Amino acid sequence: MKTLAIIGSGDLGQQLAHYALSDLHYSSVVFFDDFSTEKTVNDIPVIGKTADVEKAFELKQFDELIIGIGYKHLAEKKIIFEKFQTKIPFGRIIHSTALVDSTAIIERGTVIYPGCIVDAQAVIKENTVLNAGCAIAHDTLIGSHSFLSPRVAIAGFTTIEEQCFLGINSTIIDNINITAKTQIGAGSLVIKSIDKKGLYAGSPVRFIR
User: Fold this and answer.
1) Domains of the chain (ranges plus CATH)?
2) How does residue 163 score in pLDDT terms, banded at 50, 70 and 90?
3) Separation of alpha carbons 76 and 91, rounded Å
4) Residues with catalytic function
């Protein structure tokens, strides 16, 4: 089996490492972290900083890469992905309890947590996280570098553009488009398309800032 490298050894990176190992996607994990001074995190070695990733790959210290940076830094997550996308293979973690239709497309660098449902013809673009229990209905597209919190529910024929954050238990009805770099607050209901980026919250949502 392969070794996975995760950029970021914080809470999200540790979760990804746990699923990578416990769900038997990878035999071992290493971290890269620009801010940690620790040599190991949860017994997983921190072998360098982001600047060291390419050299470590050349030295065969890992096989595939995933970015474990949280939802507050989606722009940085995109920058790092684009830096390495032509140089290093990106992995995927689709938890064994997730139900992913055979016609769905899950692109590289994406992580799908336990209990998610991804229906027919749905597309999850690269470098995206679907947290526990998300439901993505048929013919829906989730854009690159996005982060969906636990139990987000998205109906069919919906498009979520890149670098979006959807809060826990938010609901998006069918035939909706949400523009890039939009944040949807926890428990919110989206019943109309959103074409101006910003923070939206409420049931139904209203523009906050």
Assistant:
1) 3-84 (3.40.50.20), 93-196 (2.160.10.10)
2) very high
3) 19
4) 138
